[in-house]
Design a protein that fits this description.
It contains four helices and 23 strands. The protein is mainly beta. The protein folds into three domains: 84 residues, Dockerin domain (Type 1 dockerin domain, Orthogonal Bundle), CATH 1.10.1330; 136 residues, Trefoil (Acidic Fibroblast Growth Factor, subunit A), CATH 2.80.10.50; 125 residues, no CATH class. The strands form nine sheets. The chain has a four-stranded antiparallel beta sheet with strand order 5-4-1-12, with no helix packed on it.
Length: 393
């Protein structure tokens, strides 16, 4: 990119600094070079500071959204930047959550205290305790508290699945409306090139950090951000490019560094039901590392039961939809009522294969005139038709 940077203080030229850098890495007393590491906004080491993320409510599968009126609520997936958040570490285990559309605006706890029901809204970032958040890992999700909020955590109002339900705070009780998936936008860590200290901007502090990387090396994430000339190594050339940028010179420094985020599948999942008794007509799971030898989960007991129709399911079929959700189809049947007793199918969706929602009945025999004679709606499967952009069951 061709950019102009401005510095209020005089910087020593890149050439002089480059000559002063040692040719070999300095080592610590322990004999190992102090490799510069990336900065994370969570203790898990998964949320890289400075990247953009979506925040999904595990209860509803909807996204935390900055509304046009400044309110923060949940909404189904939208185009644009209203559901994208820049999460930046501010030290001491805390972070700020900024709008990707305007990073001067931050999530803020109304009233700035620990009262239950305080809503979350967008306001100008002022580095206040109401804008400092802690990301607490809980199984595969996070619950989020503010510095000002004590034990009160971000929460979906009234445990709602609806679009527009406010995000407020409530004493943490471990509910699904208090758990959030934080994932990089498009499964990609997009970081600002030259932002060596991962604070979301490029300034003289990054020049100091770059010097350390050139001297001692950096981990994979740091090296990618610091490799400004894209030659695969971080050296005095990259230091010179950054210094020139900060002096206001035109450079060919790329704007962003994209690092793929991927957590590969580690097991095969087998979904099944246990038997013909009502308490066995539930969703059960087993896993395998080789696709041949399976181990039942949950001590061999069911992991989920239907709450609609016959309240029993058989023949569960799970697939990943084009929208990223997992979907389940199953036979709505209680076999103790007879083998020809079922007329419908069950559908549900999930973000994590554990918590299922939007459970509904798909009517077959009672809805379509040409199907009134059907006495078995069994073992559904689905195929996606990309031309019609719909599923065939």
């Amino acid at each position: 990119m061709k950019v102009q940077g401005k510095m209020t203080a005089l910087l020593i030229s890149a050439a002089v600094i480059a000559q002063a850098l040692p040719a070999v890495s300095t080592v610590t007393a322990a004999g190992e070079p102090p490799v510069v590491s990336a900065v994370y906004a969570d203790s898990e080491g998964d949320v890289v500071s400075g990247a953009e993320y979506t925040i999904m409510v595990r209860l509803s599968g909807k996204y935390v959204t900055a509304a046009s009126d400044g309110n923060v609520h949940q909404w189904e997936k939208l185009d644009g930047d209203s559901q994208k958040w820049k999460i930046i570490s501010i030290g001491n285990g805390m972070c700020c959550i900024l709008s990707a559309a305007d990073d001067s605006m931050a999530m803020t706890v109304a009233n700035g205290n620990s009262e239950n029901g305080n809503t979350i809204y967008m306001s100008e970032y002022t580095d206040s305790p109401a804008q400092h958040f802690i990301l607490h890992r809980t199984d595969d999700a996070y619950y989020i508290t503010a510095e000002c909020s004590g034990n009160a955590a971000l929460d979906v109002y009234d445990i709602s699945h609806d679009n527009g339900a406010d995000i407020d705070q409530w004493d943490y009780w471990g509910g699904e409306g208090q758990k959030f998936y934080i994932r990089p936008v498009d499964n990609n860590y997009r970081l600002i090139s030259g932002d060596i200290n991962f604070d979301g901007k490029v300034d003289s502090f990054d020049r100091i950090a770059m010097e350390k990387v050139v001297r001692y090396g950096g981990d994979e994430m740091v090296s990618a951000v610091a490799d400004l000339d894209s030659d695969g190594i971080v050296n005095a050339s990259d230091y010179g490019i950054l210094t020139g940028f900060l002096l206001g010179k035109e450079t060919d420094m790329k704007s962003f560094c994209d690092i793929e985020y991927s957590k590969p599948d580690v097991a095969y999942l087998f979904a099944y039901f246990l038997g013909n008794a009502p308490e066995q007509e539930r969703l059960s799971y087993a896993v395998s590392l080789d696709g041949k030898n399976f181990k039942a989960l949950n001590s061999g007991k069911a992991v989920w039961g239907s709450s609609t129709g016959t309240k029993c399911i058989r023949d569960p079929y799970i697939f990943k939809g084009e929208d990223g959700y997992y979907y389940m189809l199953a036979t709505d049947m209680k076999s103790s009522l007879g083998w020809n007793s079922n007329r419908n199918l069950i559908s549900a969706k999930s973000t994590d294969l554990v918590h299922w929602f939007d459970e509904s009945i798909i009517e077959i025999a009672n809805k379509y005139p040409n199907m009134t004679g059907a006495d078995r709606a069994w073992a559904p499967q689905a195929i996606y038709d990309p031309q019609k952009q719909s599923y065939m069951i």
